[in-house]
């Protein structure tokens, strides 16, 4: 272990580089968000703020109601969505993992098929807005991601690893199917569930596309969409300023540091959530790889 | 083995079922389309029968309707709901309608309108232009209602106020689909210099007015640049190909980034590649020369793709060109950049299709109340108070009128300040801001009228057939333009750029443009 051979050092070096590539952008975003705006314009970015300034946060949080509301929406959607989605996906996955279920293959195919083909953007929009009338409700942010085929297949593989003997012996003891599922299978599948839960919560937290399409009410705008809207506005104004009709007020562009402050606020909670899942994470990630 | 067979049989059955189901669905989809069209026509005929009484319409005789209006801008504004409620009170009193305002942010509008239009949502009015929510493509798709009859019946005043040449510019196959919001449509870039620099060097920007093009540019601007750069070597010269583009003596068909222009003086309407014209070459040579003389500060600027928009605020700007010259430019520049500059038009203004189709409202083909939508547009274009309310917010709250009759910011201006006056109706109705000339709208009108109309007025290029090539050539432009703009690219490099444009399909684009222009010329 203590032998430091050349190949090992190379491997370390590569991983150090990789870690740096991951860490430096994050550090620089934090640094920019804490820097003085004119200093950035004059001297460019630096890894540590030359002139320390929390004005950007003051600017972003100046009207806290909107941001707090966006946080609220994001948190509700992430937690409620993850909860519902885990229950639904675990149910399907468990059913698919039972080899004594007669329609296992057709049902697997049905799940799998949606991974390959989907309705496309416009039909989905028509379905959700014109038929299900989900537009401008909180459910439109939750329901479309409730059953993600890829996660279902991941969970199924994980549950297949649980020996059938356990289920059989439970049955002999007179446990009902529901009891087996909730009291035996779910606890045993915890690492898999935790992994999928992490993915799901990330998906809900990071999603802005659904809100772009379906949310028009300001009170239902989640945090990521707020951030996306800000960024895309800036991108739009800078890229096509030549074609715009004259008289557009560029003064609405928030400063560089305010944008970064916003990014930190949006990413922050996920950084805090991640460690809680980490203990399951490595175990869970390998489930797809080795089939039991 | 048998089990596997069974399963696959089930799979086949399932697949077939899914396909059948999809077919069923798509059948439903296609059958619903004629339906929509069918419901569209009765509505239109109903309009016509209702028309005679419409002239004498009082709000009481109109049934109450709800209109949906999509538009774009720096939304959301904190107090928008309050303002919209006020606007609705007026609209309700005048035409007995309430408007469901759907303000969308710049970055969202294109994408969102695509699904809204594709899904056949029965919204009523939407902002459309040549630069966002693309007008000609939407008309091509049949998304909008032809407005000719509606305009004549329900918006006679606005119809008369807008010059006929403007309406002609919006025509697609002889029909008007876009309601023009008047603004400065004659395009020439403005050339400006911070006022303190102009004073310091005793320089009058108006000496350059109307004289700048690709050939004259170097000789005219160099004297002042030379003086300033000696004292302030860090200051930017904001003059890229992009920014000067509108001052060149030719009209870009799609945009300056895309190959294909027609010279204003060319009666035969021959499309050429602007990057191969002598004019652009002369301009690029000037930039190269300036860089060699050390004017461009290129070592620092080449490190980023665009100049920081905040750079001017930080006092780094020297002389710049861009945007569109219009009366009152200085005031707007002051609001944007935080310093006063003096501006002049760079060249003679030209009236082009894109200048007119830059701000339009369209009525949805599936609109349930197209006649009411048109009445709303007429109301916005004739009721000055209503227009200013939507534009600038509530008087004495978001804006104030000072003793001289100029508009000044109110105490709560930052709660509602979309600042897109050309979005809602004719810009001519807007309150005159302090610092702008009192006659700004008359001046604007005059510039529009005196501008030289392009020979291509009314022609709109359908980019669909060469979309891929346009994308590719734009990528080439993106790759090279920064180096060219800063004068860093050598002549060999510039030739390489032109060659790469060719490889990316510039000839194909130009041929397609020529084909469409020739076809258009015959119908004219």
Automatic annotation (TrEMBL), chain A:
InterPro entries hit by this protein: MetI-like, MetI-like_sf
Membrane topology: Multi-pass membrane protein
CDD domains named among the record's database cross-references: TM_PBP2
ABC transmembrane type-1 domain mapped to chain residues: 71-277
One GO BP: transmembrane transport
Entry keywords, A to Z: Cell membrane, Membrane, Transmembrane, Transmembrane helix, Transport
TM segment ranges: 12-34, 73-95, 107-126, 138-159, 180-205, 257-277
Protein's UniProt keywords contain Ribosomal protein: no
Cellular compartment(s): Cell membrane
Top-rank lineage group of the source organism: Bacteria
GO cellular component: plasma membrane
Keyword hit for Ribonucleoprotein: no
Assigned protein family: Belongs to the binding-protein-dependent transport system permease family.
Protein name: Putative aldouronate transport system permease protein
Organism name: Paenibacillus prosopidis
TrEMBL record, chain B:
Annotated DUF3502 domain residues: 456-521
A Pfam family: DUF3502
Source organism superkingdom: Bacteria
Signal sequence, renumbered to the chain: none
Entries under PANTHER family matching the protein: ABC TRANSPORTER SOLUTE BINDING PROTEIN-SUGAR TRANSPORT, ARABINOSE-BINDING PROTEIN-RELATED
Protein name from the UniProt record: Putative aldouronate transport system substrate-binding protein
Native source organism of the sequence: Paenibacillus prosopidis
